[in-house]
Amino acid sequence: MVPNEFQRIPFRTTVYALYEDSRQYLWVASDGGLLRYNPMNEQFISYFFDDLKNWVYDILETPNGDLWLATFCGVYGISSEQSPEGGILKVKYHFTHDQGLYSNDIYQLALDRENNLWVLSNNHHIDRINLTTGTILPIEKITDIPHIDSYAVISDSEGNIWISTSDNLLKLSVNKGNISTQSIPLSRVLSTEVFAMDEGRMRYGSLPPKDSL
User: Fold this and answer.
1) pLDDT tens by residue, 66-86
2) Which end of the chain has the least Cβ crowding within 10 Å, N or C?
3) Cis peptide bond upstream of 208, omega within 30
4) How many Å apart are CA 4 and CA 172, to the nearest integer?
5) How many Å apart are CA 36 and CA 74, to the nearest integer?
């Protein structure tokens, strides 16, 4: 049975991600923009960008309380303090192809221990944004691996970055600006697209089916 409040998401809205921030606000990434659940009236408040491309695929919070959004037109950084009535989002940062991203169509975000944002685009490419300097680097320059066909990216509780590819998992350990890379082979995997951390275990979906590490 779906809770009543989730039935109040606007009609025909496709939901891509749910995220609870440090203030226990529930945010929804959708093809209709960004939604926030209001427990006072059990309704969702709608926020959108000042353009026609309002698709939001992923949400992530940084330690300073800012929210970062993976969207159809780049990566947005916004304050969690938005109008209680909804409407146009107050944007603090916006990174696009013009600033150095490989693509504007961003699907997934992950944050490492040194405040770097790792972004996965629709064409299986990953860039890293240094949120302190605004510098953007492709993963190939960071790891010296010539080509990485990426399907998903997450961070673990220690701030390490995990990337799934067509035939392995990459673990990137970040320490004082230095990155060490560990590759974990996955035999006979056609694509590894979904994975998550659960009590220290890596769980992932693939073709053919796999379980966990």
Assistant:
1) 999 999 999 999 998 888 888
2) N
3) yes
4) 41
5) 21
> Up-side HSE of residue 45: CA atoms within 13 Å toward CB?
18
CA distance 192 to 74: 24
Polymer length of the chain: 213
- 98 by Cβ neighbours in 10 Å (0-12 / 13-18 / 19+) ranks as exposed
Nearest to 124, CA basis, from 191, 183, 31, 71: 191
pTM of the model: 0.84
Closest CA to 193 of 164, 155, 154: 164
Give every CB contact of residue 152 below 8 A, 6+ residues apart in sequence.
108, 120, 163, 164, 192, 193, 194, 195, 204
For residue 56, is pLDDT > 90?
A: yes
Quick: pLDDT tens for 106-148.
999 999 999 999 999 988 899 999 999 999 999 888 888 877 7
* Distance in angstroms (rounded) separating the CA atoms of residues 196 and 208: 18
pLDDT at 189 over 50: no
Helices (H), 65-213: 139-143
Rg (CA), the chain: 18
76 contacts 68 by C-beta, under 8 angstroms:
yes
